[in-house]
Each structure stands twice: as C-alpha cells, then as structure tokens.
Amino acid sequence: MKGTGSKNAWALFLLLLAGIVLGGFIGMLAEGVPALDWLAYGQSFGLDEPIVLNLGVLVVTFGLTIKITIASIIGVILSIFIYRFL
C-alpha cells in the first residue's frame, strides 16, 4: 500500500526532529553542570552574517546556522531506536 510507507517516513522524520530538538535542549541545560558539560560539546556551522536581499518594497533575509552537540547526536540515536521498536 502506498500510503502506509509514507506514514512511516513521516513518523521517522518527526521522531528525528524531536530527538534533535530535545538533545539540543538537554545540551543547553547541561552547559553549566561540571559533570555533564561534555554533552554541550559540539560544532556550529553555517552563515555568520545573514544575506540580505533588498528589493525596495520587499526585504528578504537568508540565514542558516546549525549546531551539532553530543546531546543532539544521542537524541537522534535514541529516536532511531524508538522508531525501530514502535
């Protein structure tokens, strides 16, 4: 069935997104705790300054920054395990 496969792909996508967000949140909370500060270790990449397109009437700003931390990687791994067992 065509519809069944797309539901599973959306479920995986939403679980991965939730794992990234929750992992990033946990990493942000762990920054101040000495025993858990390794969870906040990571790399940030993207555009440092946004690109602005000024068309007179319309101003469009483009920008993207991604921060990958140990906690977000753990969140992604946990979301994959949850997806496999559900």
Task: Give a nutshell description of this structure.
This protein is an alpha+beta fold and 86 residues long.
Number of helices: 2
Q: What summary fits the major beta sheet? A: 2 strands, antiparallel
- Quote the average pLDDT: 89
Count the E strands: 4
H/E series, N to C? HEEEEH
Using only C-alpha atoms, the radius of gyration works out to 18 Å
Strand order of the largest sheet: 1-4
**Helicity level:** 40-55%
Please tell me what the overall shape is.
flat
Number of domains: 1
N-to-C span: 19 Å
Structural class: alpha+beta
Strand percent estimate:
15-25%
Give the low-pLDDT segments.
none
Protein name: DUF4321 domain-containing protein
Pfam families: DUF4321
InterPro entries: DUF4321
Organism: Mordavella massiliensis
Can you walk me through this structure?
The protein is an alpha+beta fold. It has one domain (2-85). The protein is 51% helix and 21% strand. The protein has a two-stranded antiparallel ribbon with strand order 1-4. A two-stranded antiparallel ribbon has the order 2-3. The longest helix has 28 residues, at 2-29. The radius of gyration is 18 Å and the shape is flat. The two termini are 19 Å apart. The mean pLDDT is 89.
